[in-house]
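yo

u said u wanted the structure for the complex thing, so here. seqs first:
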Amino acid sequence: MFITALPTIAQMVGANRVLRGVSITHPTGDPSLAAGDEHDLRVGIVRRALDMLTVEVEPGTVWELDG
Amino acid sequence: MDGGARMTVVHYLNQFFAGLGAEEAADQEPVRLDGPQGPGRGLAAAGIAPDVTLACGDDYFGEHEADAMATLLGWLDELHPDVLICGPSFGSGRYGYACGVLAREAGRAGVPVVAAMTPDSPGVLAAEGAAYIVPTGSNVAAMREALPVVASLAQRLAAGEPVGDAESEGYLPRGLRVNVLSERTGAERAIGLLLAKLAGDVRTEVEPRGDRVPPPAPVADLAVTKVALVTEAGCVPQGNPDRLPTRHSNVWLRYPIADVDSLDPDAYESVHAGFDTTSANADPNRLVPLDAARALEHARAFGALHDVFYTTSGVDTPVATAARHGQEIAADLRAAKVGAVILTGT
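structre next:
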């Protein structure tokens, strides 16, 4: 599956499982958070990515981080 | 348009070409400027001077597309331009995408649009045939060649004059079916194409669209699945020892992470030329989430993390090259019995 802050481009080129990342410059992080909170956020992102790998999806499915 | 009637020309640029700053200004909200800016002055010299320049940061557009588009389309609605010119955006992914989306929606609102970008830009797909897109080289060195072609098309569109077919005018085919009367029958043209192909000259009258892969079946049991991390964000060991290209990369690389629990900023960096790497270089896990993946591996959320990660710089990459990279990495993953991949991109 693909984590990116530009999910529309991913859909356009045929990606099927897409998770919207936090930002273009830090798809799996957030420098505005304290270190511990940022790590928790990232663990949550990877958990969501793993969830997406285990479900059936229609072509070109985009999930948000909060689902 | 009758001779002497005033034309309104609007030009869309990103923050850099509008002179508002480089990557640090990529979060610039849409702004409306009088007269030509940057390359707009070149358009003026080529005979079509923008009356208004609309500019927006590349990151802002990508991350707030609905808001950016509402603002930009609102301005276009007020200005009622005779033509909209977007770019040239050359090989830029984000800027090209913004140009393509704006072109598509402006086109739907009835505004003629000319854009200019590399044929592999995501903006070409995003435009969905709504714009006359002049193909360019990858970077600003191609500006001088592109502007006169853009200007010529824009002038005629603004004046309501007819524009010829893609090949003779020098724009990318828009994927539109136009009925034309041919001197030769279909059978004659098909034999002509076949004879040309046998002689090594491969041509087509219809361009195939990109291939589509159906979604793979879900992972049956994560607990026994090996997961791999792959990135196009250009993450490499500090100092880029194997010289991964920063753009237009013809290679992908693979680095061992068996004993690595986190991507330390002293040990890794990003060399991707397409975005501001400041926050990623302060913590490369923000691009390749290794620390989180390792924590979840220890918590047995999945079977195992593959002992290497794969990396390339996904910017200004021809589609054919990117497809080859994907196939080669997939072959490596299959050989290593990897069952699932988390790919990260900017």
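Chain B is about 35% helix and 20% strand. Chain B has two domains: 9-169, 222-344.
cya
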